[in-house]
Design brief:
The protein is mostly helical and 100 residues long. The protein has 4 helices and 3 strands; from the N terminus they run αβαβαβα.
């Protein structure tokens, strides 16, 4: 399992160096992989579509951190996840910081 996690992390790192315009998946990911995925997103990404991937509050706050500094993102989909009040507040705060 550790080798699998390292492989996933390496793949996400490679994504971060690419000109990825859109990230879309419906595969279930845990909070650890959500963290790796969000930290690896290139600033050029314009769409992040993660419906039903089971991201929780921690994952939502990580997405919020990305949102607060992203200048290119135009679409975000997080419906049907496990985001509660604290995750929603983190996303809302990020949108207040970056209204672009």
């Amino acid at each position: 399992a550790e080798n699998g996690a390292a492989l996933v992390a390496a793949g996400f790192e490679a994504l971060g160096r690419s000109a990825l315009p859109r990230l879309s998946t419906t595969s279930k990911i845990d909070e650890v992989h959500a963290h790796t995925l969000v930290r690896s997103l290139p600033s050029s990404v314009v769409e992040v579509l993660l419906p039903g991937v089971e991201i929780g509050d921690e994952g939502a706050m990580l997405v919020g951190t990305f949102l607060s500094s992203s200048k290119a993102l135009t679409a975000l989909s997080l419906e049907d996840n496990k985001i509660g009040e604290s995750g929603a507040l983190g996303l809302g705060t990020a949108l207040e910081v970056n209204a672009s």
